[in-house]
User: Fold this.
Amino acid sequence: MKSSVIIFPGSNCDRDMDVALKKFGFKNQMVWHNDPKLPKSDLIVLPGGFSFGDYLRCGSIAGKSKIINSVIDFAKSGGLVLGICNGFQILTETGLLPGVLQQNRNIEFICKNIYVKVNNTDNKYFKNIKKNILELHIAHNEGSYFCSNQELKSIQDNNQIAITYCNSKGLSDHEHNPNGAIDNIAGIFNKEKNILGMMPHPERMIDKYLSGEDGSIFFENLIKNFK
Amino acid sequence: MKIKVIVTLKNGVLDPQGKAIQQTLNSMGFPNVNGVRQGKYFDIEIDEKDEIKAKSKVDEMCKKLLANLVIEDFKII
Assistant:
């Protein structure tokens, strides 16, 4: 399985993602944002970081970069596109995913482990996943997912909520909402479920001694679903 | 020609920075400040002599990049 990680100036989770993808069997390539064409890939990843210094709005400048047109074409033809953290922000800025990531409710940069509940397993990312509550890591200043009530209803009706913040038992409530995201949303799909944007970082949870292994569960499952 | 643009959050969209500024103003001795909304201001130099054409270009820029219409409104002045 071939994957490509797009690097923007200011991306800083690109190499962690490269390590994670290779560890679980992807043949990964790094692609510079100014490249006009994407290499042949089964999965495109927009990594976390601070692309273009978060100027204007997080992800807005990266959302207009040269490579993005190829990413949009790839996504629209059904290709899998995964955006983590800043990658999620880029996906909302391009319009590939609905809504927007706003500044955290408490105006604080949050960097900690959290739990998320998998809400929809009828897709390539989470099908047959062996745990439906995952401990992952978040590190963001603008992670509070927001959309209009009308959009939220459409997201709910189409089962587009991928993961929600919760406690270790799977309870999603105000207390376990780290950033003020509407309905505890931590990640969403597009209608067709081939594009996934999520604030938590699975690539930071792939070592049982350093972090935890729930990220490994995500990547192992993802590559299995390709085969 | 110089065109000015103001981008503000839509009504009803949470503005944590605006709220923090308001609370700070209240605690600094401005108790009658009831609300602050923070926005962005752009000065755009555009090589165009016709003001209507220039503003129409800037309108396009706002819709495509300067504002995120999910949560923001813009005003060209």
Chain A has one domain: 2-226. Chain A has five helices and eleven strands. The radius of gyration of chain A is 16 Å.
